[in-house]
């Protein structure tokens, strides 16, 4: 019989998407207050999704990636998504913007081998977790670089995201070396 083995910690991150600088600032502050200090706050980049979010979020969206300093247990992914969904609603009710969804928060994590996103949308390549939340392996680390899949969102296929993921991976590997936390066997 196989015995469960150590699960390595992960670098938790969140993509913060909005057309409003104040919404992104509010979200980053909320992430830091609730999840801990930011290890990385990647510069804002244009976010386009082929018009998918125009009706509920408006146009001119930008995305910031925020990696959290404290390493996390990946089992929390579904809860992270339900929490960030609550924060989106909280901001929308308090901010008074015209759009019904002025803020989009997409949590995920980086391991040595993959970048995983949480989502509420079911597709053929996604695994159900709990409470209406699914997980998707968006990128894999192979042969020294990040590789995308047929389902990887265009904004996650960029060199900027690969650099962000590499910084997260490198920080995780340093931590695992220092703590002898590598999974073995």
Quick take:
With 185 residues, this protein is an alpha+beta fold. Helices cover 32% and strands 31% of the residues. A hairpin with a 3-residue loop joins strand 5 (104-110) and strand 6 (114-119).
Beta-strand percent range: 25-35%
| SSE string | EHEEHEHEEEEEH
Give the C-alpha Rg. Answer: 17 Å
- Low-confidence runs of at least 5 consecutive residues: none
From the spread of the alpha carbons, the general shape counts as globular
Total DSSP E strands: 9
Overall mean confidence score, pLDDT: 94
Compile the SSE list and pairings.
Elements: E1 10-18, H1 21-35, E2 38-41, E3 45-46, H2 54-57, E4 62-72, H3 77-95, E5 104-110, E6 114-119, E7 127-130, E8 133-142, E9 145-148, H4 159-179
Antiparallel strand pairs: 1-4, 1-5, 2-4, 3-4, 5-6, 6-8, 7-8, 8-9
Structure report:
By secondary structure, the chain is α+β, with helices and mostly antiparallel strands. Helices cover 32% and strands 31% of the residues. The chain is built from 4 helices and 9 strands. The protein has helices at 21-35, 54-57, 77-95, 159-179, and strands at 10-18, 38-41, 45-46, 62-72, 104-110, 114-119, 127-130, 133-142, 145-148. Strands 1, 2, 3, 4, 5, 6, 7, 8 and 9 form a 9-stranded antiparallel β-sheet that branches. Strand 7 (127-130) and strand 8 form a beta hairpin. The longest helix has 21 residues, at 159-179.
């Amino acid at each position: 019989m196989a015995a469960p083995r150590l699960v390595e910690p992960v670098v938790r991150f969140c993509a913060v998407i909005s057309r409003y600088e104040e919404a992104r600032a509010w979200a980053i502050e909320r992430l830091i207050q609730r999840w801990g200090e930011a290890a990385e706050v990647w510069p804002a980049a244009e976010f386009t999704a082929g018009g998918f979010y125009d009706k509920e979020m408006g146009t001119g969206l930008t995305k910031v990636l925020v990696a959290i300093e404290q390493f996390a247990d990946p089992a929390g992914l579904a809860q992270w998504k339900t929490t960030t969904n609550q924060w989106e609603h909280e901001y929308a009710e308090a901010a008074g913007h015209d759009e019904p969804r002025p803020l989009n928060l997409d949590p995920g994590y980086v391991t040595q081998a993959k970048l995983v996103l949480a989502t509420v949308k079911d597709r053929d390549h996604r695994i159900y977790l709990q409470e209406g939340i699914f997980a998707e392996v968006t990128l894999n680390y192979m042969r020294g670089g990040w590789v995308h899949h047929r389902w990887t969102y265009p904004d996650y296929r960029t060199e900027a995201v690969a650099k962000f993921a590499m910084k997260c991976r490198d920080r995780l590997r340093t931590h695992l070396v220092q703590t002898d936390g590598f999974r073995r066997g």
